[in-house]
Amino acid sequence: MSKQKVALITGGASGIGAATARRFASNHYRVMIADRNLAQAEELKNTLNAEYGSNQPNGDIADCLEVDVSQRSQVEQMVTSTQQRFGSLDVLVNNAGVSGSGPVATAPADHWQKVMDINLNAVFWATKAVLQIMLKQGSGNIVNTASISGLSGDYGFSSYSASKAAVINLTRTTALDHARDNIRVNAVCPGAVVTPLIAGVLNNKNIAENALDAIPMGRAAQPEEIANVIHFLCSDEASFMTGAVIPVDGGMTAWSGQPR
Ligand code: NAD
């Protein structure tokens, strides 16, 4: 039997990250759920172990750890702990993120730094740490959860949009740097996804109607629809894909914005 692969998922306790943890666990990966919300991460860990752990040769399939990805030392410890816990590290999903809106003129003073620390700098530090392991083992997959807000601007989303645009080119550059190392690096760009991150938008009837009308498919995604693409990108089926930036957006980026 081939060795069980290991996936580390940041922001793995909720939304897209939780769906991704479940998707990998369902395909026999061992998963580390890394999140600042330890209680929610533990709940998911127990659920996944109950659902998928009993069939595994190694017993439990999931574990979790508490991390604030805005802290470099914690990010590095997260990577070390995952490797120590499971013995290898095959997949990193840099998924933790915060929204935080506001035009430049009115955004709170600490807003920019906070969003950059969580959405961008954490991706750099986690990738740097994990590459030391992947280069030694001669293989690996990294997927970054960017956003369609990183492909073009979004009203009132100054720092968020800038952080996701930077993640997209960090993805491309890292993919180039390791294209001959058997390490693939890709990004997904979700549109609207039904998660707590955009609950404020989706729970407001008037805003939600407009937002959903701007999506050609007329609905938001379920987190599983993003998780499936992340899982695919890390699979052998995507063996010739690296540096790819994939919108998963119900057709939003296919639309120029001209009236119907
Ligand atoms: P979510 O709020 O459901 O999940 C985000 C998770 O990240 C939470 O569990 C949270 O605790 C964790 N997190 C936040 N800050 C953290 C930190 N400093 N350290 C550790 N963990 C932290 O949101 P989601 O929608 O699943 O978002 C996941 C990713 O998808 C984000 O990067 C987000 O920008 C991106 N995204 C979401 C949407 C959407 O419509 N929901 C669209 C495009 C991109």
Number of strands: 7
Task: Kindly report the oligomeric state of this protein.
Answer: single chain
Taken in chain order, the helices and strands follow as EHEHEHEHEHEHHHE
Strand order of the largest sheet: 3-2-1-4-5-6-7
The structure class reads alpha/beta
| Rg result | 18 Å
Beta-strand portion reads 5-15%
Q: Averaging pLDDT over every residue, what do you get?
A: 94
Low-confidence stretches: none
> In whole angstroms, how far apart are the ends?
54 Å
Protein name: SDR family oxidoreductase
Keywords: Oxidoreductase
Family: Belongs to the short-chain dehydrogenases/reductases (SDR) family.
Domain Ketoreductase: 5-204
Layout of helices and strands:
Layout: E1 6-10, H1 15-26, E2 30-35, H2 38-52, E3 62-66, H3 72-86, E4 91-94, H4 111-137, E5 140-145, H5 158-177, E6 183-190, H6 199-202, H7 205-213, H8 223-233, E7 245-248
Parallel strand pairs: 1-2, 1-4, 2-3, 4-5, 5-6, 6-7
Nicotinamide-adenine-dinucleotide (NAD) binds at residues 11, 13-17, 35-37, 67-70, 95-98, 118, 145, 147, 190, 192-193, 195-198.
Pfam families: adh_short_C2
Protein name: SDR family oxidoreductase
Organism: Spongiibacter thalassae
Tag the structure with descriptive keywords:
single chain, 8 helices, alpha/beta, about 260 residues, 7 strands, binds nicotinamide-adenine-dinucleotide, SDR family oxidoreductase, NAD(P)-bd_dom_sf, Sc_DH/Rdtase_CS, seven-stranded parallel beta sheet
